[in-house]
Every structure is written in C-alpha cells, then in structure tokens.
C-alpha cells in the first residue's frame, strides 16, 4: 500500500499574519504531515461585496462584517506566498494552497505549484475548472455539497482538458460536520463509479473519522489545524491543535501499516504460536500395538506439532504400529 498523503490544512488560520503562518508550518512539519496547505484568493474576485457569511462564520467572527470584509483581512500577498514556500522548503514539507479564483490559479502556477487543490465551492465553476486544467498539474478535487452527477461533470471537464491525474476527496462543508452527515461510504462509492483514487477532507471534531477513512481506502487525508482553537477567526474552533494533528498523523500511519497486503496468511509474529495453540491427535489412555484407533481411544489436545485433527477420519480405523501412553501424540 502506498503511503497516505496527509495534508495539514492551515487554510486562513494564519489570520493574515505571515509569522503565524510560519508557526503553522512548524507545527505541520513536527506532526509529520506531508504537506501544509493555505488558501489563495483575492476577495474582490471571490465574493460580492454584500455576500453573507456562513452560519458558523457568524459564530466565530464579527457579526457585523460581511463575508468580503472577513476575507479581505485573510488574503496572502504574492510576497507572503514566496516567503512561505521558501520556509516550507527549509522545513522539508510540501507547500500547497487552494486557489479560489482564476487570478489565484495563475499566481500559484507562476510560483511553481506542482499540484492543485480544487475546493468544494468551485466544483460547478466551469471557467475555473478549465483554467486549472490548463496548468496540466496533478489535481485533488474536493466534492463537498455535490451530487454524484456534479462530481462526474467536473471530472469530465478536467479529463476533456487533458488532466489524467485526479484524486477525489469526499467532504462535508459544515464546520463542524455532524457525525450523522459524514457518510464515509460515499467516498467508497465515488471510487467504484469513477475508478479514481479517493481521499477525505474532514471537518468533524476529533481525529477518529480521518483514520476510519484510511481504513476504507483513502489515499489522501486533509484536516484543518490551528495553533489555538480560541484564536479569533472563522475556522479555528473546528480545527485541530498541534498535539491533535500529531495524534491524527500517528493514527493514520498505524492504520495504513495495519491494513497490510490483503493476503490471508500466517504472519511472521504468529508463526511461533501455531504449534502451541493448535491441537494434534493424541491417545486418550494407553493403546497397545495392534489395537485399532477409535473415537474412544483418541482425542485432540495441544500442542499442534503432530497429526492435524483435520485428518481425524483418515486415522480412525488404522491399526497402531506401536504402544502409546496417555496424551502421547499419535504417529503414522
């Protein structure tokens, strides 16, 4: 099994501060994530000036500001991007960022992104999908709020424009996601129907569901994290803190190791137990040479280094070639 690609989603939890962003990179690297991901957007290109915020954003940010006002404070400049890419190189962790508008797609391409993450909200944005496809890079496509037909339509656009390397992320965009709405089996369904690698972008509280997704076949896991859940900002409360992120990565690594190769066989660690735990055919009491083996003078007991009880019918009726004492393993 290939190693699960773990994306630590910093998102906008830097609050527009490049130093906080660097501390997030430190935390993602220390946790063992493969990549740390931010969000690239221009508020003017992303949202109308009077657009409302999501319900969860009202609870975590200034209730009087618009979505535009909130996002404007969370933009990363081109120079900030360059600084963070350089810092990720230093920390030996992949820099990723999700572009939310066509201008941001072009910026990230100019900065050398080798992989593009399409957010759930852009899955029905045809001009955006075409622009992403133009970059001819690997694609990770989040599918929150989508029907299977919408996912298929987006995949078709990408494929029709020359993209072959696509991974689909099952996702629910509610922060936090109720357990009853996770529907992890939909990830399995997408894999079966579209014959593409799948993963899971998680917004539940805790770390159990991403680990469960790995057990179901996820090859990519994405999870929001923050330095402190009590920080001001829209996504902090539904994010993991650094110690939780580390626990999640460790849980994923243990799970992928435990999944194994799928072949049912005796493992290295249990080979020594075979003879100890299994049984052999043994004498119930003393058996004399020339006596026939019967249901009454034979039984099965540990250890398992003699004749297997699976040969019971074959042994019954055979004549003993020598004397046997009680509990002695039968031989032929």
Short description:
The protein is an alpha/beta fold and 332 residues long.
Name the overall outline: elongated
Radius of gyration: 29 Å
Helix content: 25-40%
Instruction: State the order of secondary-structure elements, H for helix, E for strand.
Output: EHEHHHHEHEHEHEHEHEHHEEH
DSSP strand count: 10
The number of helical elements comes to 13
Strand share of the residues? Answer: 15-25%
Described by strand count, sense and barrel closure, the largest sheet is: 8 strands, parallel
Q: Largest sheet, order of strands side by side?
A: 3-2-1-8-7-6-5-4
Low-confidence blocks of residues: none
Estimate the mean pLDDT confidence.
95
| Coarse structural class | alpha/beta
Tell me the span between the first and last alpha carbons.
Answer: 44 Å
Structural summary, described in words:
The chain has 332 residues and is an alpha/beta fold. Helices cover 36% and strands 16% of the residues. It has 13 helices and ten strands. The chain has helices at 18-31, 43-46, 55-60, 67-72, 78-91, 102-110, 126-134, 148-160, 185-194, 208-215, 242-259, 274-277, 312-315; strands spanning 5-11, 35-40, 94-99, 115-118, 138-142, 166-171, 198-202, 220-224, 280-283, 298-301. It has an eight-stranded parallel beta sheet. The protein has a two-stranded antiparallel sheet with strand order 9-10. α10 (208-215) links the parallel β7 (198-202) and β8. α1 (18-31) runs parallel beside α11 (242-259), α7 (126-134) crosses α8 (148-160) and α10 runs parallel beside α11 (242-259). It is elongated, with a radius of gyration of 29 Å. The two termini are 44 Å apart. The mean pLDDT is 95.
């Amino acid at each position: 099994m290939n190693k699960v690609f773990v994306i630590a989603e910093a998102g906008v939890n830097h609050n527009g501060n490049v130093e906080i962003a660097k501390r997030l990179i430190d935390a993602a690297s220390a946790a063992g994530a493969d990549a740390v991901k931010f969000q690239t957007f221009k508020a003017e290109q992303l949202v109308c000036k009077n657009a409302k915020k999501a319900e969860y954003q009202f609870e975590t940010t200034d209730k009087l500001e618009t979505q535009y006002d909130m996002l404007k404070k969370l933009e990363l400049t081109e120079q900030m991007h360059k600084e963070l890419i350089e810092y990720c190189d230093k920390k030996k962790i992949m820099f990723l960022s999700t572009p939310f508008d066509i201008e941001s797609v072009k910026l990230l391409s100019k900065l050398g992104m080798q992989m593009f993450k399409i957010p759930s909200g852009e899955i029905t944005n045809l001009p955006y999908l075409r622009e992403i496809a133009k970059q001819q890079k690997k694609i990770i496509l989040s599918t929150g709020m989508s029907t299977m037909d919408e996912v298929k339509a987006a995949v078709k656009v990408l494929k029709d424009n020359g993209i072959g390397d696509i991974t689909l992320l099952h996702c629910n965009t509610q922060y936090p996601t109720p357990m009853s709405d996770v529907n992890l089996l939909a990830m399995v369904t997408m894999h079966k129907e579209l014959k593409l690698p799948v993963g899971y972008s998680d917004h539940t509280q805790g770390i159990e569901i991403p680990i469960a997704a790995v057990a179901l076949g996820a090859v990519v896991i994405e999870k929001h994290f923050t330095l402190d859940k009590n920080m001001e900002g829209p996504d902090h409360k539904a994010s993991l803190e650094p110690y939780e992120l580390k626990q999640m990565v460790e849980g994923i690594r243990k799970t992928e190791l435990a999944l194994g190769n799928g072949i049912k066989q005796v493992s290295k660690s249990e080979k020594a137990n075979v003879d100890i735990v299994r049984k052999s055919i043994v004498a119930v009491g003393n058996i004399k040479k020339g006596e026939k083996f019967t249901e009454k003078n034979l039984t099965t007991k540990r250890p398992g280094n003699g004749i297997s009880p699976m040969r019971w019918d074959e042994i019954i009726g055979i004549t003993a070639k020598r004397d046997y004492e009680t509990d002695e393993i039968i031989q032929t």
